[in-house]
Amino acid sequence: MKGIHQSSMAVRSFIVMACVVIVLAGIKAASPIVVPFVLSAFLAMICNPAIRLMSRFKIPKALSVLLLMLFIVLLGLWLASLVGSSINEFSKQLPVYRAQLIEQFAWMLDKLQSFNIHISRQKVLEYFDPGMALSMTTNMLSGVGSVMANLFLIILTIVFMLFEAQDMPKKLHLALDDPDMRLKQIDKFLHSVNQYMMIKTLVSLATGVIVGIGLSIIGIDYALLWAVIAFLFNYIPNIGSIIAAIPAVLLAFIQFGPGAAGATGLLYLGTNMVMGNVIEPKFMGKGLGLSTLVVFLSLIFWGWLLGSVGMLLSVPLTMVVKIGMESSQSGMWLAILLADNVEEAEDKMSALDANPLPEATLLTNENDVKKDNGPE
Hints:
Structural class: mainly alpha
Distance between the termini: 12 Å
Pfam families: AI-2E_transport
Protein name: AI-2E family transporter
Strand content: under 5%
Organism: Shewanella holmiensis
Keywords: Membrane, Transmembrane, Transmembrane helix
Transmembrane segments: 9-27, 63-87, 140-163, 202-233, 239-269, 290-313
Shape: globular
């Protein structure tokens, strides 16, 4: 009997994994449709607090949504204009930057020649091409820009989501078989994602402003572009700030030498340490309870599945999965693996033992019935 039970569990696990693979393959194939929808959902979450704030001042909801959509359209057009003009100007200045780079490395090449180590200037340009200063960021921005090409579809989706925002939680409660048990879980999910997106947006905005002002003081070219990139890449956990800093530091080295490059690196490091380790935890509390390894792996996974937008939204998307697993008895093991530390995992197990989830209760009742009736 025990062997049959283990065999059925193995078959069920295999079926579940096969279904997951099929679903992921479908999402990957349908990414041109899925990505704009996901982006619209999270933009609606960011806009929803502003709608509630304007409603306190007796502004009609339709007018509030119209004003927000107008702001998003103007912001998207401004961002596209900024990136396009900056890339064109950078391309024109590329020969100048190449010459400046050779000048900065001249002392090092002379020093190496004194030790009978000869390196041609062409080799230096191959490994330290100034064009690399924009290669990473333009690839990322082009991915986001391709999604924004569907701006009209995204705007319409956001509008409908904002109008449905108040009724959606009630519909979810009614759609569930046991709304009383799931009520707190749905509210926790909506509150957590809304809180994360709002705080992360404000922190990213402050990061971009500080970086932009600092780079302007140092005198780095395209300071506004690097500030926008710092704002966007701050959504990417752990390595986002590093990626955003690379082109600015390289350009500072080309323009002014090692001193300016060091100052630029310290600017990024200090800003992200203060914002990431002081300001953000203060307003977000303990955060959303994801381990550092999970955050990094989620960045890779969602980036592969949904591209640039998936990387920007990797943490909230992983949080959606985590909270969804916490509301299911069969998925609690995955929520525990995604937890930040052992203490949080133990708390989840203690809470589960004290208040079993509906699926656990249902499973227990079925086992009791089988015991009473005897083996079939």
